[in-house]
């Protein structure tokens, strides 16, 4: 991603959605599972360049929204990407914002989702501990509510209550 | 009823009692209290859980009532042939150790989140929560934050794809859809309550999955869907890597969005939007996962991209009558792609 592209994105307000976790997954699981050699080679060529582009965009003030390309890797691992975004230069808060307020803006739903505020849809999750101190806590949601209905309460929740 | 809520009829009943089809466990007995609004009876739940509404909710009158779904937790009972309706909402209070305000980064202690039906009622100090009435969810030691959003998922189909796209032809549409139901559940349970799902090779399975989730048939995140990939022939959204004599007979549903001329691009954009897509996904450059694709190499011209944007930006007359189609667009680009054609609120997805 060249400097001119980055500047144009920043000026236009274009969101960057970069699946910076996926490259590692493909490199590891793809080799184990014997994926096509051309796919693995292309992955190797792009993984580092993509992460450098992410950091470049971050520095230039490009808006960043969270997106992982799930389906390449098994669904449910989505939150593994937060640690990669932090490694590429985001603060833990900024990484969380990319998957809440900024993502909501990108999908034009920022009046409904992405915040815990009056009138917003009751989509609420919980993790054990403080994710600003350990971003990887997001990889284990122990409570999930969507539309006001509890979808999931992990066994960790019960342990904490006991 | 909150604006934007879709009404769906769940069940008629004849006798004054209502049996809901909603999953057991989270509905709340309403206490019927009539508000002053002439055509609205508002009932508030009192924290008890039940699976049937008819056990002690004696609905007044002898006329049939109609139950409508307004989301996962709130129900509207409308009395037929009257213009009155009744909202039964559940009030829940979540009391975590910490509440993360994702706008400011503040971590709030001793605060509770009040849930009214399917919406956030407010964030209040723990001391201000009434001791009786609502159902409490206590989360000691835990931090609460908004449900997360992933703007780049592919919920339909089997994960992987590193063996080439011929594998897609070994599965039926039904298998793709059922895999999608599993994937949607796994995504939701990981804390992602909304997704922008950017494409399926078998057209419109994502639309069906979105609607099934909205209807409460399967568990999953709220979806915005692309319907199909708008891509050039042999591009990242086409079925590539097939033997040439097989390639010619790939079923239409795999190539709904495959287009080359500017006119065909316009037609493809109209097709996906008319089929129920919420936005248009253009595959602008070569994809890592596609056999033959070269990352960074243009697969659409600027003229094609501009035509697609123009077509997607037309007034909503193209959309099915029951849906409003937001016109967000996304142009996945591999590193190095010049985004000269991207406009405000476009995305540069760095795709595989």
What is the structure about, briefly put?
By secondary structure, chain A is an alpha+beta fold. Chain A has helices at 3-12, 22-32, 37-60, 81-87, 92-98, 101-106, 155-161, and strands spanning 15-18, 63-64, 124-128, 141-146, 149-153. Chain A has 7 helices and 5 strands.
Describe this structure as you would to a colleague.
Chain A is an alpha+beta fold. Chain A has 2 domains: 109 residues, no CATH class; 41 residues, Urease, subunit C, domain 1 (Roll). Chain A is 44% helix and 14% strand. Chain A has 7 helices and 5 strands. Chain A is globular. The C terminus of chain A is likely disordered. Chain B has 352 residues and is of the alpha/beta class. Chain B folds into 3 domains: 82 residues, no CATH class; 53 residues, Urease, subunit C, domain 1 (Roll), CATH 2.30.40.10; 201 residues, Metal-dependent hydrolases (TIM Barrel, Alpha-Beta Barrel). In chain B, 16% of the residues lie in helices and 30% in strands. In chain B, the strands form 4 sheets. A 6-stranded mixed sheet of chain B has the order 1-4-5-6-3-2, with no helix packed on it. In chain B, strands 7, 8, 9, 10 and 11 form a 5-stranded mixed sheet that branches. In chain B, a hairpin with a 2-residue loop joins strand 9 and strand 10. In chain B, helix 1 packs across helix 2 and helix 4 runs parallel beside helix 5. The N terminus of chain B is likely disordered. Classes of the chains: A alpha+beta (162), B alpha/beta (352). At the A-B interface, helix 1, strand 1, helix 2, helix 3 and helix 5 of A face strand 7, strand 9, strand 10, strand 11 and strand 12 of B.
């Amino acid at each position: 991603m060249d400097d001119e592209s980055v500047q144009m994105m920043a000026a236009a307000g274009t969101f960057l959605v970069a699946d910076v976790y996926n490259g590692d997954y493909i490199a590891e699981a793809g080799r184990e599972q014997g994926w096509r050699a051309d796919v693995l080679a292309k992955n190797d060529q792009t993984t580092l360049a993509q992460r450098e582009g992410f950091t470049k965009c971050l520095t230039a003030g490009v808006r960043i929204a969270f997106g992982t390309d799930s389906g390449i890797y098994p669904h449910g691992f989505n939150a593994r990407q937060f640690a990669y975004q932090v490694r590429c230069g985001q603060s833990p808060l900024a990484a969380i914002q990319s998957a809440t307020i900024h993502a909501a803006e990108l999908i034009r739903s920022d009046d409904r989702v992405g915040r815990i505020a009056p009138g917003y849809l009751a989509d609420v999750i919980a993790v054990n501990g403080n994710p600003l101190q350990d971003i990887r806590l997001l990889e284990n949601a122990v409570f999930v509510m969507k539309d006001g209905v509890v979808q999931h309460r992990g066994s960790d929740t019960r342990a904490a209550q006991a | 009823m909150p604006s934007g809520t879709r009404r769906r009829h769940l069940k008629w009943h004849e006798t004054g009692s209502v049996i809901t089809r909603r999953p057991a466990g989270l509905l709340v007995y309403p206490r019927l209290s009539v508000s002053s609004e002439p055509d609205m009876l508002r009932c508030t739940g009192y924290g008890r859980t039940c699976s049937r509404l008819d056990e002690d909710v004696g609905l007044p009158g002898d006329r049939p009532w109609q139950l409508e779904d307004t989301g996962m937790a709130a129900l509207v009972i409308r009395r037929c042939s009257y213009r009155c309706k009744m909202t039964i909402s559940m009030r829940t209070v979540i009391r975590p150790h910490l509440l993360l305000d994702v706008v400011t980064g503040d971590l709030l202690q001793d605060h509770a989140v009040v849930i009214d039906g399917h919406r956030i009622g407010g964030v209040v100090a723990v001391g201000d929560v009434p001791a009786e009435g609502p159902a409490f969810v206590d989360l000691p030691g835990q931090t609460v934050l908004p449900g997360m959003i992933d703007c780049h998922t592919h919920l339909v189909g089997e994960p992987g794809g590193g063996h080439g796209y011929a594998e897609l032809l070994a599965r039926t549409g039904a298998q793709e859809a059922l895999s999608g139901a599993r994937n949607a559940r796994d995504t939701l349970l990981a804390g992602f309550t909304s997704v922008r799902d950017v494409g399926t090779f078998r057209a419109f399975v994502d639309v069906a999955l979105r609607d099934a989730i909205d209807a409460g048939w399967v568990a999953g995140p709220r979806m915005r869907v692309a319907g199909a990939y708008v891509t050039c022939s042999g591009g990242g959204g086409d079925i590539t890597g097939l033997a040439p004599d097989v390639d010619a007979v790939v079923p239409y549903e795999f190539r709904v969005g495959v287009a080359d001329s500017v006119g065909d691009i316009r037609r493809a954009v109209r097709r996906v939007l008319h089929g129920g897509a919420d936005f248009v996904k253009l595959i602008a450059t070569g994809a890592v996962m596609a056999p033959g694709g070269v990352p960074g190499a243009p697969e659409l011209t600027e003229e094609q991209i501009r035509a697609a944007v123009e077509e997607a930006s037309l007034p909503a007359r193209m959309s099915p009558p029951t849906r409003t189609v937001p016109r967000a667009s996304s142009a996945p680009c591999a590193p190095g792609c010049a985004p000269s054609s991207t406009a405000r609120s476009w995305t540069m997805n760095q795709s595989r």
